Amino acid sequence: MSGAGAPDFFYREAQRLGYVARSAFKLLQIQKQYKLITSGSSVLDLGCAPGAWLQVACQSLGPLNKGGVVVGIDVKKVKVPQLHCDSRAQTVCADVMNLPRNRIRALSPQRGFSVILSDMCPPVSGITTKDSALSVELGMRALEIAVGRTSLEQTEANLEDLVTGVDDDDVTGLLQRGGHLVIKLLESEDGQEFSKICKPLFRKASWLRPKATRSSSREIYLICQGLQSQAKK
Ligand SMILES: C[S@@+](CC[C@H](N)C(=O)[O-])C[C@H]1O[C@@H](n2cnc3c(N)ncnc32)[C@H](O)[C@@H]1O
């Protein structure tokens, strides 16, 4: 059974292991392959409801005495799950599209975040082009929060069609140099354009379709590793 909502292997495993959603296994696979979150990392989790990625991110921080933080943001109100999370996790209820970067910056440790995750997705309408365009808008906002407008303006791609206009005086990004960014998109030509924007900004950018992704879903993750201090020529 693989249709949306049907209880499958990952759903049952999530229940057995105390994760609030089967999506936990997507971040667990990303962690296994790329080891983005390490002891003491500072993690921003965009689109965090119901909280499964908060759980995996918090677990990945290691022991409490090693420090680290996980800040989750969602338009839905999210209670930090008790299992697998500790006092290092907190959530904020807000629309990421309208939330000024300096408000998010105020939630971060001194030097921004070492990992930014975006599992945001729009409510699916079933109209492929509309859903893809909204997904790229959310992804673009996550990228802009991470690298800032200045870095984006340095890339050669034509961003005018993709960047959404948020009235935001704070133009610098919240991702630390060397930091990592994960962005969910729906597969489309715009997604390919999107990866062309990211590639010069990071040491490496690659696509992953986690095993826990439902066969009916077009979602795919762009894993960007190692934010460069300057865009590659
Ligand atoms: C697939 S769910 C995330 C699942 C989450 N990673 C987990 O493992 O529990 C996508 C989330 O993105 C959120 N979202 C979509 N657009 C958003 C926006 N503009 N601002 C904040 N959250 C948004 C939705 O409310 C939804 O909860």
Automatic annotation (TrEMBL):
GO terms for molecular function: rRNA (uridine-2'-O-)-methyltransferase activity. Coiled coil: none annotated. Residues 19-226 form the Ribosomal RNA methyltransferase FtsJ domain. The active site is at K184 (proton acceptor). It comes from the Eukaryota. It holds the Pfam family FtsJ. Keywords: Methyltransferase, rRNA processing, S-adenosyl-L-methionine, Transferase. InterPro entries: RNA_methyltr_RlmE, RNA_MeTrfase_FtsJ_dom, rRNA-MeTfrase_E, SAM-dependent_MTases_sf. The keyword rRNA-binding does not apply. HAMAP family: RNA_methyltr_E. Belongs to the class I-like SAM-binding methyltransferase superfamily. RNA methyltransferase RlmE family. PANTHER family: RIBOSOMAL RNA METHYLTRANSFERASE, RRNA METHYLTRANSFERASE 2, MITOCHONDRIAL. This is rRNA methyltransferase 2, mitochondrial. It comes from Cannabis sativa.
